[in-house]
Amino acid sequence: MGLDWKDVLPSEEEIAEKVAWILGSWGCERPACLEVRWNFRLRTAAGRAVLEKDLRVELNPHLLARHPEQFLPTLVHELAHIMVFCLYGRTPKAHGSEWQSLMRRAGQDPQARHSMNVDGLRRKRRKFLYLHVCKGCKANVIYRKVRRDIACGACGPGEFLILRSSATPEGLELLRRKAAELKMAGG
Ligand SMILES: [Zn+2]
Ligand SMILES: [Zn+2]
Prior knowledge:
The protein is α+β, with helices and mostly antiparallel strands.
């Protein structure tokens, strides 16, 4: 599966052309503050429309590299959210009649959800808990991963003892008991 996304995904110029074409099909100007970009942190969502001070369409490169034919429908979908916001504000429903009408005018089926294969893209559930105990004062904190970037509020940067348990209520209880024991044993 040596698929390089750069070989498959549209270039910036191609994206800009598509955006212009879609906006043209709606008779709309491109909003000055609109940005369209890839977001490598997206997992199973094909894209998202960010409606803040700046307007931004973010597209999922993992998913769209697998399904290049879904690039245009996804871009239209997210741009339609942007234009509904520009034209009507936040009142309309996300996938309501205004959005559906824009989808149709750009030649797309107004489907709210994509049906692309998301195998392997779901966020992995973290299976463990990690108790971090300051070796100085025995203060403790529990994280879902090993953290090397933490410092003790009292002792500052220093060494931490790290204990692992399963991410279950029992595992949590075990770590809490262990933390209490260490504290009792004194610092
Ligand atoms: Zn949507
Ligand atoms: Zn400490």
